[in-house]
Amino acid sequence: QVQLVESGGGSVQAGGSLRLSCLVSGDTLSTYDDNICMGWFRQAPGKTRESVGTIYSPRGSTYYADSVKGRFTISQDNGKNTLYLQMDRLKPEDTAMYYCAAYLGALYCEGRETFAFWGQGTQVTVSS
């Protein structure tokens, strides 16, 4: 099984920055021949879950939702099995629980919303 653990959430003022991390572990990930799609999602109070963006391991291709494009950056450290979400120029609308997710052997990644493994989430609160 694959385990995902998010960290780095907190409370910041509008215009501030946060960096979220997602630690990936499990013996399945020790195999190198899978195309891995990883994504960040968020769910604000009273709203449905929405995709923030994805990154596809074959070439490191990234995709971002229009609401965060230009402000958020997804990256990964394969050596340490860690996924990152750098969030800059944060807005109150970014307040949500943030989740990371993984899908092994993915044939596509951009726009993907179905993932096999999910983390427990980390809270991000942006005040004005």
Q: Main traits of this protein?
A:
mainly beta; seven-stranded mixed β-sheet; four-stranded antiparallel β-sheet; 51% strand
What do these coordinates show?
With about 130 residues, the chain is mainly β. The chain has no helices and 11 strands. Strands 2, 4, 5, 6, 9, 10 and 11 form a 7-stranded mixed sheet that branches. A 4-stranded antiparallel sheet has the order 1-3-8-7, with no helix packed on it. It is globular, with a radius of gyration of 14 Å. The termini are far apart.
In short:
By secondary structure, the protein is an all-beta fold. Helix content is 0%, strand content 51%. Strands 2, 4, 5, 6, 9, 10 and 11 form a seven-stranded mixed beta sheet that branches. Strands 1-3-8-7 form a four-stranded antiparallel beta sheet, with no helix packed on it.
